[in-house]
Design goal:
This protein is mainly alpha-helical. 79% of the residues lie in helices and 0% in strands.
Amino acid sequence: MKRGTKSGDTKVVESATLVLEGRRRGRLQQILPFLGPAFIASIAYIDPGNFATNIQGGAEFGYTLLWVVVASNLMAMLLQTLSAKLGIATGKNLAEHCRNQFPPAVVWLMWGIMEVVSMATDLAEFLGAALGFYLLFGIPLWMAAVLTAILTLLILGLEAYGFRPLEAVITAMVGVIAVCYLIETWLVRPDWAQVAWHAVVPQFEGSESVFLATGILGATVMPHVIFLHSSLTQGRIVTLDAERRQRLYRFEILDVAIAMGVAGLINAAMLIMAAAAFFHAGLTNIASIQEAYRTLEPLLGPAARTVFAVSLLASGLASASVGTMAGQVIMQGFLHRQIPIWVRRLVTMVPSIVVIGMGLDPTRTLVVSQVVLSFGLPFAVVPLILFTRRRDLMGDLVNSAFTTCVGGVVALLIVVLNTYLLYETFRGN
């Protein structure tokens, strides 16, 4: 995916080059030029689909599924690091490697699946932003949808000014969401002993908890952004020297650790807020974002629901923009074709408009969309592991045997969970 090279970008690249050459000192000065790609990727991990799955999970099962959030976030850190490494090592993104390495029939199949995944992603993100406008201002959902389309196009228009302005705006929105959930967590005063226990002890409570756990996994580990991250790093800072490439990769690991760490804490805070505010108050039937919004005021005061709506709006707008970027990367990589970004924005918003027009429950639709995403995960995760373990592609940045083994376990876990969910779905559960 081609992005503009502007004066701000040039300064970032020059600063990064000085750091890689060992000519710039100062911890903050060393880190700043490399921060950005993972923050763009991280917004997909705190999109409105996470609000839907985490609120339902917390309201219905308390802190029980908190370990799923923690495990999913650790998986996300590993996979986003591998994706970033693929772009740095090869100068190509994951979709381009799929096109080069797989037979044409497989390439077309994978492209079709990933386009469906992108539309499911956009459904969650677009609906979330529209709900944010609706909850904050009380405007009709169809009008909120139009506002969402306009604002996401404006955000995407920042790419014309280079990669840095877009990175800055997305990072600022991550910051807004983080502050909002810091406030929410302070207001609900959770039981921290229970939080610590359920963060590390795996448990389920029936098939519905497994369904929600798979939804949380699908909402947290995002297939489209695995493709996107390799594109964000493939041409951002280029170095052919092996030692400098290793240093660049280490800085990218730091970028992923910070960005995904923040995203993981926000996801945990979502579920903790729902568990403390709803489950422990006996409100286990909070099954929608709208209900959560309305119930927060009598429980926690008027500021709580406003903070909640602001975080939902920021999440929806930022993640819808990132989702559109990912769709462009997927089409360009698999097919070597692109369509104008405004056309993709309009096409991918069609399912959301249909859902709004039919009056379907937005929250349940969001949860189902996350399950669709989880089914797309193997088609991103398996090729990523196959490519990053190959020395002929990765050179000195090839996976260690341990990394490949852990990645294989993650892929197997995803496949097993999705197979179980499919079995339960066909059984009518």
